[in-house]
Amino acid sequence: MNDFLELYGTVQEKVRKLNEEIAVKEFEGISGDNGIRVIMYGNGLVKKLKIDPDAMNHYSIDILGDLIASAINAARYKSAKETLLVIN
Predict the structure, then answer these.
(1) What does the mean pLDDT of the chain come to?
(2) How many whole angstroms separate alpha carbon 41 and alpha carbon 22?
């Protein structure tokens, strides 16, 4: 039983360290022919949103909103993928 608890504690500590490492990594999501770029930390906080002026002129407000959401989702996907790769 003590071996199990010791192993559990070790695994729990490794997971905590991995979460801390991923949380501060930056991931980029791009959409709209590179017109929308989002930089997001692994913990889900958005660091930066860049909108190309041409995209502002080319797309409607509704489409811009969709493109921003798409860029955020792309960054979140990269973060999740990185997390899975590190865990495995």
Answers:
(1) 91
(2) 8
